[in-house]
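User: quick one, sequence for these tokens?
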């Protein structure tokens, strides 16, 4: 295969498809790749998408190129498995997304007018709603919340559910009332702490997080991005604590919370961000 001139001269995407077909070949393919199915590969697909986001966050263009390749491999892997069972192949996947982009951009490929980003978003959501209605089957009535994937990260799913409900008027008019709602939910969480009922505490904590996502949406801040930034900040500051303790010949395990908290405040003062 590697010595085949046709392989060497083919387009990169065709070479990638050929590599995946060889890896999945029952006669001499890779045992690990052959053992996979859609469910076992799905976690890797999600992981690669997050690694793409991480490279973008770090503004690492070389890393982004590499991570995009890893994500493309996931698409090719799923497409190959689809082809093996006669469900779809890579060309069908590509053709489906081409058709969707043409359908959802009538302001570019048709006669619809949409001069602003807001107008484009309105058209997009209207078209998606029509697509969901066309796909709806069964006796239950359709919902504006249909199609928000259960597998999304919880923060992202909360934001999408809220955005869908907002389109039919179920929403706060400004961020300020949401702050009051967050305070209310925190109060309810505090009340449940006294009961030691884990199920009720979990429920109230979920309400707090849902309200915080709502605030982020109104502020036009991606809660995932905000939390990733805080995670990174926490990591840098805690590493500062470890470094300062190490210089004193100690570790966090050898220190008190008060000592570590003082170093945490020192890290904040020194802007270890």
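Assistant:
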């Amino acid at each position: 295969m590697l010595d085949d001139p046709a392989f060497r001269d083919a387009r990169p995407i065709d070479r990638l498809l050929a590599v995946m077909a060889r890896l999945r070949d029952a006669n001499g393919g890779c045992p690990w790749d052959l053992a996979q199915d859609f469910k076992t590969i799905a976690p890797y697909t999600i992981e690669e998408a997050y690694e793409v986001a991480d490279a973008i966050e770090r503004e690492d263009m070389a890393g982004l190129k590499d991570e995009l390749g890893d994500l493309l491999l996931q698409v090719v892997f799923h497409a190959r498995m689809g082809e093996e069972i006669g469900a779809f192949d890579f060309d069908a996947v590509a053709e489906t997304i081409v058709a969707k982009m043409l359908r959802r951009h009538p302001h570019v490929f048709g006669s619809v007018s949409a001069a602003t980003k807001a107008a484009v978003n309105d058209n997009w959501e209207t078209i998606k709603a029509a697509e969901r209605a066309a796909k709806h089957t069964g006796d239950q009535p359709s919902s504006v919340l249909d199609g928000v994937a259960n597998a999304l990260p919880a923060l992202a799913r909360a934001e999408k559910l809220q955005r869908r409900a907002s389109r039919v008027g179920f929403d706060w008019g400004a961020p300020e009332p949401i702050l009051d709602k967050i305070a209310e939910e925190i109060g309810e969480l505090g009340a449940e702490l006294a009961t030691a009922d884990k199920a009720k505490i979990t429920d109230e904590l979920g309400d707090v997080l849902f309200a915080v996502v709502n605030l982020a949406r109104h502020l036009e801040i991606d809660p995932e991005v905000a939390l990733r930034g805080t995670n990174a900040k926490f990591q840098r500051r805690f590493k500062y604590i470890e470094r300062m303790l190490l210089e004193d010949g100690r570790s966090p395990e050898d220190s008190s919370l008060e000592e570590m908290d003082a170093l945490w405040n020192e890290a904040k003062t020194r802007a270890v961000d």
